[in-house]
Design a protein that fits this description.
228 residues; alpha/beta; two-stranded antiparallel sheet; 13 strands
Length: 228
């Protein structure tokens, strides 16, 4: 059986609907996995059944959780329900060696879980181009998981965020933008846990970005064989 990947969703303002772009599902399926949308509950039960976790993009993490002060003028949607759920997913994933791929906000969740502050607002990282068009380069650190996946030190990515992982992260900042902001993170440890600040699910026509999902699914497949 193909590895089962649980995808954590966004919620609407009333928190009575979950929301996910279909691109996440296509990227997982085309890489050889079976994607499954989750609700914002039952993290422990999900971990018992999932071989991998994707933390999707969306609103802002509650600044209180990272010891930061929210920028009220620029703050996006905040859902404490989602924050707490995804932190629970991270706790169980780390404990059970479940591979995790964090995308955009998902990277920031990984960063925050492993001790990072979140830069509350930054300019210049919301591109004007269409979402499936790469708009700027990131610089990838040698010897990292991301470098092994991409095989290059420079990668052109898309960009749709106004926050970023800041100081305190327990792990490796494996990619940075030309203006010095974190673009990928890898916590210390052996489990495949990778956060990327861009949206590779919208760029899978480019081999380098599809490889991110392919390697994630490979890690999930290994977990499935071990577990079953």
């Amino acid at each position: 059986m193909k590895p089962l990947v649980a995808v954590s969703p966004s919620v609407n303002m009333n928190e009575d609907e979950i929301m996910l772009k279909r691109a996440y599902f296509s990227a997982v399926f085309n890489a050889g996995g079976i994607p499954m949308a989750t609700d914002l509950s039952g993290a422990n039960e999900i971990i018992k059944n999932a071989d991998g976790i994707i933390l999707s993009g969306g609103g802002d993490i509650d600044a209180e959780l990272t010891g930061d002060v929210a920028d009220k003028a620029t703050q996006g949607q905040v859902s404490r329900l989602r924050d707490e759920y995804e932190f629970e997913l991270m706790k169980y994933a780390v404990k059970n060696n479940i591979p995790v791929l964090g995308i955009c906000r998902g990277m920031q969740v990984i960063g925050a879980y492993f001790g990072a502050h979140i830069i509350q607002h930054m300019e210049g990282h919301k591109q004007k181009e269409e979402k499936n068009v790469p708009s700027h380069f990131v610089n990838i650190k040698d010897g990292t998981v991301l470098h092994k996946i991409i095989g290059e030190n420079r990668l052109k990515v898309n960009s749709y965020h106004h926050q970023a992982v800041g100081k305190g992260f327990r792990g490796t900042i494996s990619a940075v933008s030309d203006d010095g902001f974190a673009e990928a993170v890898e916590p210390d440890g052996e489990t495949f846990i990778l956060g990327v600040q861009w949206h590779p699910e919208l760029l899978t026509e480019y081999r380098e970005h599809q490889r991110i999902f392919s390697e994630f699914i490979k890690a999930a497949a290994i977990k499935r064989r071990i577990a079953y």
